[in-house]
Specification:
Number of strands: 0
Number of helices: 9
Number of domains: 2
Distance between the termini: 37 Å
Helix content: 55-70%
Shape: globular
Strand content: under 5%
Amino acid sequence: MSDEQHGDRRRGRFWRDNSLTLAFGTAFLLVLLGQALAGHAEFNEQLTVDGLQQISLGQYMTTSDFAVDVTENWQSEFLQFFLFIFGTVWLVQRGSPESKELHKAGTESDREQRLGEHARSDSPRWAGTEDWRQRLYSRSLGLVMGCLFVISWLAQSVAGVAAYNERQLRQLQAPVGWGDYLALPDFWNRTLQNWQSELLAVAAMVILSVYLRQRGSPESKPVGAAHTSTGVEG
């Protein structure tokens, strides 16, 4: 096999082996662009109503209005995963593939988690340690999701107060400070409308997957699995 053929095979394996991430990453960028285009049009319409000069797409994407619209969705998504990751350690749902098996509620044993002396040759290096590195790595996914939630929520609040104050100034009203903005309905309306939708989506996925199937999906049980089968993926 020539070097060129070998390179083509490697590239083919890369696209196949990472297709899920690549597909959703590409879809994310396309949807983000669509949001920017729609938001830009709406923002310019509002500027026209207010008797102000319109701005370009590039300028719009650096505004606080665009930033707050993006970050308010990001923080709710990271909150969803943070709560789900930690919640499924202890909470179970009989019959759902999104749940662990009923008798495995909790952090499980070192043998089940392949920690310390039970780590295998292909286990992550920190999984085989017996100190703080193991404790940190064994909770790293939830901790990173929690940090991303806090960072994006903070970004939402900073962008949100800037966007709010821009509207205040257009209406010849006094701007507010960041602390005052956190107590305003504008901030909590933006926040809670996203939280409730994410929590509803998780709850629906957990309970609907008890009774419904999607052939070939790891988020579903095998089509012929019993409704009571828990923690079984297709």
